[in-house]
Amino acid sequence: MGKLYEMLKEDYRIKEGLKTCINCGTCTAICPAAEFYRYDPRKIVDTVQRGNDSDIEELLKSDVIWYCGECMSCVTRCPRKNGPGLVIMALRNLSAKLGYFVHSEKGRQLYPLTKIMTGNILNYGYCVHPDTFKWEDHVESGPVWKWHTEHLEDNFARLGANFRGEGPGVLRKIPQESLDELKSIFDVTGGTERMNAVEKFSEEKAREMGMSIEEYFTYTFGHCSEGHLNEE
Amino acid sequence: MIYQGKQKIWSEYQKEIPDDKWFYVRSCIRQNFFPASERMFMEICRDILKKDFYETEHHTTCGGIAYHCDTIPQETAMTIVARQFALMTEAGYENYVASCITSFGNYTEILQTWEEFPELETRIREMLWKACRKEFDKPKYLAHASDLIYKYRNLIAEKAKFRLVNKETGEPLRVVEHIGCHYAKMFPSKGVGGAEYPYVLAGMIEAWGGNVIDYPERRHCCGYGFRQYHVKANRGYSISNTHKKFESMEPYRPDMIITNCPGCPYFLDRWQYVIAEMEGKTYGKDGFGIPVFTYEEVAGLVLGYNPWDLGLQLHQVAVEPLLDKIGISYNPQEKYKGLDSKDIMRPGLPQNLKCF
């Protein structure tokens, strides 16, 4: 049992999610990601429980750990009460921490995701906010949403929201002292350290790929190579 | 009474839901995409049923989406939640209700993990104190907002002006219910009816006159998948899962879909639009889609609210054929108006999906 395995075992999601996998494959049979991607949670759990460090390192640097949608359907159906989805979360956490995520295309998507999510949380107090939800990046939201984004204040007022307003209500402006507390939580709990690590590793990778960090953001957010899908 | 079959399973997954005095926290996605649903929830609970539901402007995201996009460590997510519990404690409440399914799953997972690993709870308490100088009690009861509407379903039925019934034939409407994955898939005993046969939405549908449709992919994920939607390159995953569900429910000719998750009604609505535009395929009658609703939208409709006050104009799939079928009147000219009938133009129309 190697160092990476020991680091994984410190994660509470491994303690919760990996007991005694019997490799029955129920998780793979039920998995929405396995139908779409070349993905097999059974194999991943088996690799982790074998505890071989070079195999785990290969996993941490691979695309496969990023295929899961974390719907947790596998947890319901596992006959031994394992949580393959939780094992995946622990693997992703370690991959982010060690900078291994930049070795795979799907892993590199952690950079735009981190920028979008943590930016929204620390600036607005929400994971998703109308000020940063650009219709051009979400054309699937349809012509109705294009219209909505052009008339945000009118539509929110019509529907009784408190958009950017003081006091409670839908999409209120979250008071600055509460945003300051969120920032402090990030600083104390490792959230800020994680953001900085993802940024540092991504900047290095962007340089290696000959891109500015802005180009890297756009590329990792929108590019999909062949070879990920079952039907390719 | 002897319970058999699904009734027996449901009876094993009944959840204690206090009747009153709740601390309410909002959903990031629902505030963006279904703003009137949260307003409707508070209106039903506070104004119609006269219950005590408290909200503070100081609550924030629970961090659940960021956590499931793997962008923040578990300790960060837990401490954000601990701060929310501290706000509840400061306000003098013990019952905690979340508007969001991801949040509900997040809270449930955290409370269970602390139960199993008390040393982690101690560490989070220390971190919260260090970061915010706050302390907290854990909620005595944790509920999802749909649990409350389920609990009040018969009170709502007593006040209903409409039922989920075809006004021409008198037949119950054929309703698909879709439960958000994080409602009970991780902890089946925390959801009304469990994970395999959840009753939280089925109970509402039955109480309001509709018939629940069973179909093969009833429990399949809508396809949100967190990073599988938020990253543009991955959205094929999301639409493929929605497509699978619609292909599976199509032969059962649903009149409507009810959901209890923030993302699901958005994806089930919008991917129908994309499938129609890409493939020319529509799942409703005569080129329309199957309308998808939040449970508060449906509660509002049966209570007789104006559909445009419920925000149904923000759906991409047209709701009018269903309103006509039930006999709910509406003013088409008012659909896309702002406050006090202000003219704010109207959306463009899709090429294939029939809309108004």
What does this structure look like?
The complex is a heterodimer of chains A (about 230) and B (about 350). Chain A is mostly helical and about 230 residues long. Chain A has 2 domains: about 5-100, Fumarate Reductase Iron-sulfur Protein, Chain B, domain 2 (Orthogonal Bundle), CATH 1.10.1060; about 110-220, no CATH class. Chain A has helices at about 5-10, 10-15, 25-30, 30-35, 40-50, 55-60, 75, 85-100, 105-110, 110-125, 140-150, 150-160, 175-190, 190-210, 215-220. In chain A, helix 10 runs antiparallel to helix 14. Chain A is globular, with a radius of gyration of 20 Å. The model of chain A has no long low-confidence stretch (mean pLDDT about 95). With about 350 residues, chain B is α/β, with parallel strands linked by helices. Chain B folds into 2 domains: about 20-145, Glutathione S-transferase Yfyf (Class Pi), Chain A, domain 2 (Up-down Bundle); about 160-340, Rossmann fold, CATH 3.40.50. Chain B is built from 16 helices and 8 strands. In chain B, strand 7 (about 255-260), helix 14 (about 265-280) and strand 8 (about 290-295) form a beta-alpha-beta unit. Chain B starts with a helix and ends in a 30-residue tail after the last helix. The relative contact order of chain B is 0.13. Chains A and B meet through helix 2, helix 4, helix 7, helix 8 and helix 10 of A and helix 2, helix 3, helix 4, helix 5 and helix 6 of B.
